[in-house]
Every structure is written in structure tokens, then in C-alpha cells.
Design goal:
It is built from five helices and no strands. The protein starts with a helix and ends in a 5-residue tail after the last helix.
Length: 183
């Protein structure tokens, strides 16, 4: 019995010893806060403003620009590159001087495709979270449509990412076989 009383009273006693913020301190802080806001005009928020905010997407992913490839890039001086003999370049078909640029372009394309796919995964997670937090079934229908469209984009983005990754891996393997340093 004594232990039970002690376990109930001791926390209350300790809590009373803690110093709480007095009402005078609290009113002084509030007065200072209000004085710092003097001269600033409040911005009225209407129901129309709130309805516009709810209609915006939580996460928007921009479309990727077309990826430059060595085949469709215009030459800077409008002249054709000179043919390279097998002794001058590796057996990958890319001249040794251009190998670093081609590899950099492939790595850039891969990083862009990976980032876009990761953003779409993030958008899917946000849509699922929004879907489960809604109580209104009509809102859920529109979210499901967004989820379906995003899922299609995500599948295509992952396929593009895998294709670019395979192309990069094949290129690095060819450079490794050709004796050039892949850096």
C-alpha cells in the first residue's frame, strides 16, 4: 500500500517542483510578439484561396527532355570526323578521343533516367499516402487515376533506365576488352 501511494504521489510532487512559465512571462512574450508584428498587414485567406491550394498536385514531375545521342548531335564545325584506324581506337567503334565524351554522355543519360524513375516512385508513394488519408470516395477515384498514370510512367522510366544501364555496361565491357582505360 505504501509503495502504491509513493508511486502515485512522488511524480506529482516532482512535477510541482518544476518551474512552469508564469502568466506574467507569457503575457510579456505575447506583447513583444504583437509589437514585432505592428505595421505588418495581415493577409486574409478566403475559401477560394484554400480551394485552389487543395487542387494542386503534391508532387509534379517534369517531362524529361530528349536525350542527346552521339548519332543525332550536330558536329560543331559541320565537318565529318576522320575515320580512325583500329590501331588508333579501341574495338568498341568509338575513337579513343571521343570515348570519354561518349561515356560521360551515357552516364549522364543513365543518371537522368534513374533520377526521373526515383521521382516517379516518390510521387507514387505520395499518391498512396494521399489515397489512404482521404475519406471521400470521389476524391479517391481521381487519386486512383493519377496513380495509374504515374505507374505507367514509372514502368516506362524503369525500362528506359535499364536500357541505358545495359548500353553503358556493354560500352564499358567493350572498352575493357579493347585495352583502353575506362577511367
Amino acid at each position: 500500500m505504501k509503495k502504491m501511494v509513493l508511486t502515485l504521489i512522488l511524480p506529482l510532487f516532482l512535477a510541482s517542483l518544476l518551474t512552469a512559465q508564469s502568466l506574467a512571462e507569457l503575457s510579456q512574450k505575447e506583447k513583444e510578439r504583437r509589437e514585432s508584428l505592428k505595421g505588418k498587414r495581415p493577409v486574409p485567406v478566403t475559401n477560394a484561396d484554400l480551394s485552389r491550394l487543395r487542387k494542386k498536385a503534391g508532387l509534379e514531375t517534369p517531362a524529361l527532355p530528349p536525350q542527346p545521342t552521339p548519332e543525332n548531335q550536330p558536329a560543331a564545325d559541320n565537318s565529318q570526323p576522320e575515320p580512325v584506324s583500329p590501331a588508333e581506337g579501341s574495338d568498341s567503334g568509338v575513337p579513343e578521343g571521343m570515348a570519354d565524351g561518349y561515356r560521360t554522355a551515357l552516364e549522364g543519360r543513365y543518371n537522368q533516367a534513374k533520377e526521373y524513375a526515383d521521382l516517379l516512385e516518390l510521387k507514387m508513394a505520395a499518391l498512396w499516402q494521399e489515397f489512404y488519408s482521404m475519406d471521400d470516395m470521389t476524391s479517391r477515384d481521381s487519386i486512383q487515376q493519377d496513380m495509374a498514370a504515374t505507374f505507367d510512367k514509372l514502368e516506362k522510366a524503369r525500362a528506359d533506365e535499364n536500357a541505358v544501364k545495359k548500353e553503358l555496361d556493354d560500352y564499358l565491357a567493350r572498352i575493357g576488352k579493347g585495352g583502353a582505360s575506362p577511367q
